[in-house]
């Protein structure tokens, strides 16, 4: 919890529950038609820095009973471990007026004296998260932040004008983080141009390499999960990493982090995939890829690819990136687009000589080393930003 400090004049500490409606009731939308289009946000679709990776459009009738209700611009706060500790949360900048999402979100709707950005930034503070962790209830692996936590969590509340001014400062500072991300994107663009120079257009096969079916150059297998963790909490909380589509989509090419783990029971109804496996999403985030840097499990919304000896997994990963739009267009129209194993297996892939693939991998590895250095620089920027955030909520950024 933020320790009591001498706040500027006109600032006051207030319980979060006094400045926000916590978990608004669904009866606000009980008169809506079941066919009303809403935005659905799963836990996997929300990032650890406020990102929303994907927004699914569903009918209200599909989600009204079993999910958490929110409106545009509400604040979403992950309440379950380890998602809460990892910082999952966002402001619902969605394309519809109302939304539904995982039951593992608390929803905070700000009253007139507070803007959503102020509450979101406060909840994102490291010491707020640590205080929330201290107040979790439940058993290991299934601990949650209770609603009553927001009665005891006190937030410094300055005048609206001051809130907006501080948020403007923080958003400008956050641009530094975005610029660092853009350097990663430039590295990715460079690697894309190298790929085209070495192998030509992979869609047109402009260099006339031998063509194979994707399913013939390696093993393609869907992930395995007989039961959904949200319906069987005993599956979670062990030591076996569980990867979801959002983590593949946000991996930057290599999957280095995870937010959930399987227990021994969870592992028995799934399977472990080896480090180096190429993960390909086939639902929600279609044809996003990431290479595992550790052994992990994943559900059937992800396909694992293990290449044969004459194929390098990095080559396949970049080849898929050129086909993403084609694969998205081939997905059947539904509330959540998806593709299947048959579509992937029948894709035609040009296979250049192994020596050329290995040369590309060598270039790719050097760029990844550069990205690792940039990641360290990014961490320094993040540390500076966190310091700025702490000053902001102590009233030290404005006079």
Automatic annotation (TrEMBL):
<protein>
    <submittedName>
        <fullName>Type I restriction-modification system specificity subunit</fullName>
    </submittedName>
</protein>
<dbReference type="GO" id="GO:0009307">
    <property type="term" value="P:DNA restriction-modification system"/>
</dbReference>
<comment type="similarity">
    <text>Belongs to the type-I restriction system S methylase family.</text>
</comment>
<dbReference type="InterPro" id="IPR052021">
    <property type="entry name" value="Type-I_RS_S_subunit"/>
</dbReference>
<dbReference type="InterPro" id="IPR000055">
    <property type="entry name" value="Restrct_endonuc_typeI_TRD"/>
</dbReference>
<keyword id="KW-0680">Restriction system</keyword>
<dbReference type="InterPro" id="IPR044946">
    <property type="entry name" value="Restrct_endonuc_typeI_TRD_sf"/>
</dbReference>
<dbReference type="Pfam" id="PF01420">
    <property type="entry name" value="Methylase_S"/>
</dbReference>
<feature type="domain" description="Type I restriction modification DNA specificity">
    <location>
        <begin position="8"/>
        <end position="175"/>
    </location>
</feature>
<keyword id="KW-0238">DNA-binding</keyword>
<feature type="domain" description="Type I restriction modification DNA specificity">
    <location>
        <begin position="207"/>
        <end position="382"/>
    </location>
</feature>
<dbReference type="GO" id="GO:0003677">
    <property type="term" value="F:DNA binding"/>
</dbReference>
């Amino acid at each position: 919890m933020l320790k009591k400090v001498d706040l500027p004049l006109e600032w006051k500490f207030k319980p979060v529950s006094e400045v926000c409606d916590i978990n608004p009731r669904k009866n606000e939308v009980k008169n809506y038609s079941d066919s009303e289009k809403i935005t659905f946000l799963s836990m996997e679709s929300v990032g650890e820095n406020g990102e929303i990776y994907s927004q699914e459009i569903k009918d209200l009738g599909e989600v009204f009973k079993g999910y958490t209700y929110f409106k545009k611009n509400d604040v979403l706060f992950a309440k379950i471990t380890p998602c809460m500790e990892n910082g999952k949360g966002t402001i619902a900048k969605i394309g519809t007026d109302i939304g539904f999402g995982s039951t593992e979100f608390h929803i905070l709707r700000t009253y007139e004296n507070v803007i959503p950005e102020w509450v979101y930034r406060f909840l994102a503070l490291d010491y707020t998260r640590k205080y929330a962790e201290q107040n979790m209830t439940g058993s290991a692996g299934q601990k949650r932040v209770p609603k009553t936590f927001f009665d005891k969590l006190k937030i410094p509340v300055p005048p609206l004008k001051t809130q907006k001014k501080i948020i403007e400062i923080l958003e400008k500072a956050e641009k530094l983080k975005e610029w660092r991300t853009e350097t990663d994107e430039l590295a990715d663009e460079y690697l894309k141009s190298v790929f085209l120079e070495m192998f030509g257009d992979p869609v047109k096969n402009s260099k006339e390499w031998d063509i194979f079916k994707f399913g013939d150059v390696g093993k393609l297998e869907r992930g395995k999960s007989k039961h959904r963790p949200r319906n069987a909490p005993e599956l979670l909380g062990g030591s076996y990493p569980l990867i979801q589509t959002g983590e593949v989509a946000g991996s930057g090419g290599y999957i280095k982090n995870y937010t959930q783990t399987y227990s021994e029971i969870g592992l028995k109804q799934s399977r472990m995939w080896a480090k180096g496996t190429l993960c390909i999403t086939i639902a929600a985030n279609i044809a996003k890829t990431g290479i595992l840097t550790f052994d992990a499990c994943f559900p059937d919304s992800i396909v694992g690819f293990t290449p044969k000896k004459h194929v390098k997994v990095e080559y396949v990963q970049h080849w898929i990136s050129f086909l993403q739009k084609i694969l998205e267009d081939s997905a059947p129209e539904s509330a959540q687009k998806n593709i299947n194993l048959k579509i992937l297996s029948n894709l035609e892939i040009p296979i250049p000589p192994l020596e050329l693939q290995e040369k590309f991998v060598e270039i790719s590895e050097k760029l990844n080393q550069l990205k690792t250095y940039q990641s360290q620089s990014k961490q320094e920027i993040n540390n500076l930003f966190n310091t700025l955030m702490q000053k902001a909520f102590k009233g030290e950024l404005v006079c």
